[in-house]
Design a protein that fits this description.
25% helix; globular; eight-stranded mixed sheet
Length: 171
């Protein structure tokens, strides 16, 4: 479930998805410090100051009243540490959410991305405000393709900015 004012927390068997706050920047700078995380998306790791600026902008929300920016950090419950993030840009007019996820290198290979993406999709579809979920994935990023498939999205023949569109229509 989601609201008009911001993201609502959700949980999966091992993760707590907490709404993004500026205070998460210090820990997330460490989680996201590996340049390899940018292999398919471009860019470079941001330091805590840059993340604080970005998180403040993201937390303020979209200037478009028909669009919501919902961002969560992913906390591994047993270790009480952040491991990555999930995000959704929700177009209220089309009832569509574009999603993305990133799991820090130190937490990869444990199924957290699949768990987070599946939890995010279920969370967004709960209540009916979102009927379509899409993700854009680099064609060579097989791990992200597997995550999208595990979350119920299906690869389409559509491309955007060199990435393949994956889609789930809830009806």
């Amino acid at each position: 479930m989601t609201t008009d004012t911001g993201p609502v927390p959700f949980s999966t068997p091992r993760l707590d998805a907490e709404p993004l706050r500026v205070a998460h920047a210090d820990e997330m700078a460490s989680v996201l410090a590996d340049p390899a995380l940018h292999t398919f998306t471009g860019g470079a790791p941001e330091d805590a100051d840059a993340l604080r600026t970005r998180y403040a902008r993201q937390s303020a929300g979209s200037p478009d009243p028909a669009e919501r920016w919902w961002n969560w950090v992913l906390r591994v419950r047993d270790d009480d540490c952040l491991a990555g993030y999930a995000q959704a840009t929700v177009n209220l007019t089309d009832a569509q959410a574009e999603i993305a996820w990133v799991i820090g290198s130190g937490w990869q290979g444990r199924g957290y991305a699949k768990e987070a993406a599946a939890g995010l999709v279920a969370h967004l579809l709960d209540g009916g405000a979102v009927r379509t979920v899409v993700a854009h994935i680099h064609p060579d990023h097989t791990a992200s393709a597997a995550v999208a498939a595990a979350a119920g999205l299906v690869r389409t023949e559509e491309w955007e900015d060199g990435e393949v569109r994956w889609r789930l229509d809830a009806g």
